[in-house]
Design a protein that fits this description.
Number of domains: 2
Order of helices and strands: HEEHH
CATH architecture of the largest domain: Ribbon
CATH class of the largest domain: Mainly Beta
Largest sheet: 2 strands, antiparallel
Helix content: 40-55%
Distance between the termini: 44 Å
Structural class: alpha+beta
Low-confidence stretches: none
Number of strands: 2
CATH topology of the largest domain: Pemi-like Protein 1, Chain: D
Mean pLDDT: 91
Oligomer: single chain
Shape: elongated
C-alpha cells in the first residue's frame, strides 16, 4: 500500500500525490469515477479504463444481439437520446 497526503483547494480540487500517481501510472488527462461513503467519511477514486478494441467489439456484438432479441429499433435509441438531452438542458 502506498500512502500520501493532500489538501482540498478553495476550488474543491485535490492533487493526487506524485508517489501514488507514479505507482499507479496515472497521467494528465486520465478520467476517474469518484464515489463517497457518508457513513465512513471516505472517498473512492477509480481510474476509468477504456476496453481494448477487441473487447469493445465483443461488447457491441453482445449489445446488438440483445437489442434485436428485445425488439429494439434504431429509432428507439434516437428517441431515448433526445429525451435525455432535453432533461439535461432544462
Amino acid at each position: 500500500m502506498v500512502i500520501g497526503t493532500t489538501k482540498l483547494s478553495s476550488k474543491g480540487q485535490l492533487v493526487i500525490p506524485e508517489i501514488i500517481r507514479d505507482k499507479l501510472g496515472f497521467k494528465s488527462g486520465d478520467e476517474f469515477v469518484v464515489s463517497a461513503s457518508e457513513k465512513d467519511n471516505a472517498v473512492l477514486i477509480k481510474l476509468i479504463e477504456l476496453p481494448e478494441s477487441e473487447e469493445f467489439e465483443a461488447l457491441l456484438v453482445e449489445t446488438r444481439a440483445h437489442a434485436r432479441k428485445v425488439g429494439m429499433k434504431k429509432s428507439d435509441i434516437k428517441q431515448a437520446i433526445s429525451k435525455a438531452r432535453r432533461k439535461k438542458y432544462r
